[in-house]
């Protein structure tokens, strides 16, 4: 127990990254630079499109633009360092930097989960209570939903960090990933971490389970309602829903593996970590662009305006 009263002597952690091969690291540097740039630009494009096109000034697209902002943050908290580390011999991160990565990972992850529930609620009101849609999904309601998503993410992350930051790290400091993943960092503490591992699984698992069940219930009711309706808007509703459901599956699929996969096995965690931090933020704007006619038309309009303004000069 005396260890708990001692301050950590570890001042930095060594990130082992994705590979030790120099040739492979150079290849991954090029690949992930392109993927990261595309993810950030794609989500910025969605935000600009929603802001500039008055036809997209609706609750659904307000929530979508906030999802894009979170995706930018999710892609940025660790990926730029990973890309820089591909060119570095010494892949280290300070203790404070490591704790910051853990904090932001869970802030953005928790916020996105709750925001996906808010987007499902928006679709539920739009399809099951269309006459009351604009009354229920007012600007104030949307702002509150976004605020709740961020507050939940911050509280969720703080509950992890409050015990992690005081753990005694007195020796091992090698993290077998490209960022400070909480389960891996906890394993480096100089005490029995079983209870802390259970706390992590319980905390994250409970939030994930609640959000997943709410999403499952919401989309089951929505799909049942759409199936009963025989109107011209059915195909459009299904197209919008398919984009939402695809994003939910892409987000919760890796998340389930991250927190259900045994702590003793980390091989698959690297692939899932890359998928969660790089590919999910990249795929989300592609899904909403390809599956949403309004967004595609608004982007074409934005592009034409940009081309027209350049020709004017």
Features:
single chain; 12 helices; 3 strands; disordered N terminus
Please identify the oligomeric state: single chain
The number of distinct helices, counting runs of at least 4 residues, comes to 12
Largest sheet: 3 strands, mixed
Give the CA-based shape. globular
Kindly state the percentage of residues in helix: over 70%
In total, the number of strands is 3
How large a portion of the residues is in β-strands, by DSSP E?
Answer: under 5%
The average pLDDT score comes to 85
Cα(first) to Cα(last) distance is 71 Å
- H and E order: HEHHHEHHHEHHHHH
Helix and strand composition category: mainly alpha
Give the strand order of the largest sheet, numbering strands 1, 2, ... along the chain.
2-1-3
Can you put this structure into words, describing what you see?
The protein is mainly alpha-helical and 313 residues long. It has 12 helices and 3 strands, in the order αβαααβαααβααααα. The chain has a 3-stranded mixed β-sheet. α2 packs antiparallel against α3 (59-76) and α9 packs antiparallel against α10. The radius of gyration is 21 Å and the shape is globular. 35% of the residues are buried. Residues 1-6 have low confidence and may be disordered.
Write the layout of secondary structure elements.
Layout lengths: L1 H4 L6 E4 L6 H31 L6 H18 L2 H7 L6 E3 H34 L4 H4 L2 H26 L9 E2 L6 H5 L7 H35 L5 H27 L6 H25 L1 H20 L1
Parallel strand pairs: 1-3
Antiparallel strand pairs: 1-2
Helix pairs in contact: 2-3, 2-4, 2-11, 2-12, 3-5, 3-11, 5-7, 5-9, 5-10, 7-9, 9-10, 10-11
């Amino acid at each position: 127990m005396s260890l708990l009263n001692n301050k950590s002597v570890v001042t930095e952690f060594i990130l082992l990254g994705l590979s030790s091969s120099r040739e492979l690291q150079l290849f991954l540097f090029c690949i992930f630079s392109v993927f990261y740039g595309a993810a950030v630009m794609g989500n910025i494009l969605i935000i600009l499109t929603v802001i500039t096109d008055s036809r997209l000034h609706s609750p659904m697209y307000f929530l979508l633009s906030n999802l894009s902002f979170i995706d930018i943050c999710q892609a940025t908290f660790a990926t730029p360092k990973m890309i820089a580390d591909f060119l570095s011999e010494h892949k280290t991160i300070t203790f404070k930097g490591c704790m910051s990565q853990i904090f932001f990972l869970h802030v953005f992850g928790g916020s996105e989960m709750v925001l996906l529930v808010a987007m499902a609620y928006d679709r539920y009101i739009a399809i099951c209570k269309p006459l009351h849609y604009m009354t229920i999904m007012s600007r104030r309601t949307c702002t509150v939903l976004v605020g709740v998503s961020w507050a939940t993410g911050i509280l969720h992350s703080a509950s992890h960090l409050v015990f992690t930051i005081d753990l005694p790290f007195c020796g091992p400091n090698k993290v077998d990933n490209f960022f400070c993943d909480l389960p891996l960092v906890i394993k480096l503490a100089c005490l029995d971490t079983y209870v802390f591992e259970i706390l992590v699984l319980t905390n994250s698992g409970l939030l994930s389970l609640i959000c997943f069940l709410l999403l499952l219930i919401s989309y089951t009711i929505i799909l049942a309602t759409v199936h009963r309706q025989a109107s011209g808007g059915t195909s459009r509703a299904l197209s919008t829903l398919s984009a939402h459901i695809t994003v939910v599956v892409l987000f919760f699929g890796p998340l389930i593996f991250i927190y259900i996969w045994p702590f003793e096995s980390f091989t698959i965690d690297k692939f899932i970590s890359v998928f969660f931090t790089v590919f999910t933020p990249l795929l989300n704007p592609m899904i909403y662009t390809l599956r949403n006619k309004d967004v595609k038309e608004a982007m074409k309009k934005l592009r034409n305006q940009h081309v027209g303004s350049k020709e004017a000069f």
